[in-house]
Amino acid sequence: MNAFKAFKAGVPIQWSPNLYITLVRGIPGTRRLHRRTLEVLRLGKCNRTVMRWNTPTVRGMLQQVKRLVVIETEEMYKARKQKEENHRALRPPLVITHLPAFMTGSF
């Protein structure tokens, strides 16, 4: 389950000292207070991830912009990155041999 689906499903997350915050919604059209909060969190563009300590101040800021961001624990972030890395890994090449019909024995 990716982080966004886990967030939407309300899956309980273990406490973590670090939070990984990803901006998943666009900034244009948001309130000025929300834009300033994202600026303080250093989230300037979509799909950017930052790591912040899990403090009451940061959690309060995230509560304001919770519809714009996805919050992951360190464990969830590492699992997502590992899955993406495995997806991008080199695969063995597909080898196709074109043999004439009389050599394969089927006519």
Automatic annotation (TrEMBL):
Residues 20-69 form the Large ribosomal subunit protein uL30-like ferredoxin-like fold domain. GO terms for molecular function: structural constituent of ribosome. GO terms for biological process: translation. One of its GO terms (cellular component) is large ribosomal subunit. Gene3D superfamilies: Ribosomal protein L30, ferredoxin-like fold domain (3.30.1390.20). It comes from the Eukaryota. Coiled coil: none annotated. Pfam families: Ribosomal_L30 (PF00327). The keyword Hydrolase does not apply. Keywords: Ribonucleoprotein, Ribosomal protein. Belongs to the universal ribosomal protein uL30 family. PANTHER family: LARGE RIBOSOMAL SUBUNIT PROTEIN UL30M (PTHR15892:SF2), MITOCHONDRIAL RIBOSOMAL PROTEIN L30 (PTHR15892). This is Large ribosomal subunit protein uL30m. It comes from Cephalotus follicularis.
